[in-house]
Amino acid sequence: MNITPSDRFSSELVPLAPERALTPKEIVAELDRYIIGQEKAKKAVAIALRNRWRRSQIPDRLREEILPNNIILIGPTGVGKTEIARRLARLAQAPFVKVEASKFTEVGYVGRDVDSMIRDLMEIGVNMVKAERTQAVQARAEALAEDKLLKLLLPDDATPNRELRERMRDKLRRGELDQQLVEIKSTTQAFPFPDMLAQFGGEEILIQLQDMLAPTLPKQTRRRKLTVAEARRVLVQEEAQKLIDMDEVIAEAKRRVEQSGIVFIDEIDKVVSSTPATSGPDVSREGVQRDLLPVVEGSSVLTKYGMVRTDHILFIAAGAFHKVKPSDMIPELQGRFPIRVELQPLTAADFVRILTEPENALIKQYTALLATEGVKLTFTRDAVEKIAEIAFRVNTETENIGARRLHTVMTTLLEDILFQLPDLKTQSVRFRATDVERKLKDIVASKDLSRYIL
Fold first, then answer.
1. Fewer CB within 10 A of the terminal residue: the chain, N end or C end?
2. Among candidates 10, 12, 35, 36, which has minimal Cα distance to 93?
3. Using CA atoms, how far apart are residues 358 and 267, in angstroms rounded to an integer?
4. Does residue 4 sit within a domain?
5. Residue 330 binned pLDDT confidence (cut-offs 50, 70, 90)
6. Do 122 and 189 lie in a common domain?
7. What is the CA radius of gyration of the chain?
8. 155 plus 96 within the same structural domain
């Protein structure tokens, strides 16, 4: 099978426009472009996403009563749990944050403040809205920045000379003045807030200090000499900031986070114990579950942008659950994840599809990478099947890491070529099944050796 670079490499998921929400079938079809198999999981998240649109069409009085059905994705590593959640968030253009539940057990008795994931989500929401508003005012900001640059480039007595000003403007737009130096002023906080306080669990104190002291602290002005090209970028950013109403940005971000935010909690099985917690690390694990409960259940979390309610945020948890079961979670937390979907282990046939079908398939990625060096990379059909077979065999004989095994097998297969380019004088590389088997024979010949392949 010949694989060649395609213009589809840059294609993205179709955005979920408010005026035309995608149906569950359309959502699954979009997820199919990137994720192979796992139809049950795709169906569950598609229904959850569509229900958000349905809820938005209901009268206000009843709307607040309809809460999202949080989901637990159960399955071994590398089968697509995280990818499903990430692609869903991108499809919905919703604020999305991924956290590992196990990190909350790293420090102290119950670990780091679990509210931090909502603060992170709110920060992402603000950045999303801010980026959209910046794009909307980009043209106006560029015009204002251009006027400022003209003032810096023209002598004071030449400012009234319209003809000279327009000549300079033309040169500026053509890039003829990009290397000329200009001096600009910029302002910064004279006493920046230390981030150390947040690292020791003092995030709420830090937020309160920022709110109280930020308006009273002086600003520090400094002068910088930059090229016109660099100064243009700085001035455009400054002018865009001035044109954006941050109060509106924060209000819109808060609405998006509360109504359409998605929190993906990975490795949730790592904070679950199969025996009652009496001492040791199991106490900390159960403590994390109890800390997660109010956030998932619905509460108000203090962020530097104000209080954020979590009632309608969609929580998607995931875990392998090799040693424990979802029923080992504390009952209250179980009740907050009513939808449970078991993802299936990947087969060799799935690996063949993963290598070739998705928009971001591995073979397409490597084909595009080698195309930058002027080399055409192709694989026959039997070569693709041999790669999938070897990856599946190594997963079976050692640790099963799912589709991630394909990355390491492909890297091993192409390692010499990637290293020798561009010195390797060739315009095409073609792999057949015999080539793949010869290159990877040492990997599958010994179980002991294959254990070192990650």
1. C
2. 12
3. 26
4. no
5. confident
6. no
7. 27
8. no
Number of domains in the chain: 3
Q: Which residues contact 82 (CB under 8 A, 6 or more apart)?
A: 98, 264, 266, 318
Query: In one letter, which amino acid is 283?
Result: V
What are the beta bridge partners of residue 340? 72
Q: In sequence order, what DSSP letters do the residues of 195-247 get, joined into one string?
A: SHHHHTT-HHHHHHHHHHHTTTSPEEEEEEEEEHHHHHHHHHHHHHHHHS-HH
Q: Give the domain-ending residue among 218, 243, 268.
A: 243
What's residue 129's pLDDT? Answer: 93
3-state DSSP call for residue 262?
strand
Domain limits for position 409: 348-450
Which residue from 321, 329, 322 is spatially nearest to 286, judged by alpha carbons?
Answer: 329
Confidence class for position 172, pLDDT limits 50, 70, 90: confident
Is the CB of residue 243 less than 8 Å from the CB of residue 140?
yes
Find the CATH number of the domain harbouring 379. 1.10.8.60
Query: Tokens 């071994």, residue?
Result: 76
CB neighbour list of residue 208: distance below 8 Å, 6 or more residues apart: none
Give 371: exposed, middle or buried? Use CB within 10 Å, 0-12, 13-18, 19+.
Answer: middle
Structure tokens at 96: 């999305």
Buried b / exposed e across 90-105, counting CB within 10 Å, b at 16+? bbbbbbbbbbebbbbb
Are 376 and 370 in contact by the 8 Å Cβ rule? The answer is yes
Q: What is the pLDDT of residues 292-329, one digit of tens each?
A: 888 998 889 988 888 999 999 999 998 888 888 888 88
Average pLDDT over residues 48-70: 87
CA 398, chain centre distance (Å): 30
Q: Is residue 248 assigned to a domain?
A: no
Tokens of 354: 């993963």
Q: Which CATH number characterizes residue 316's domain?
A: 3.40.50.300
Mode of pairing for the β-strands spanning 219-227 and 428-431: unpaired
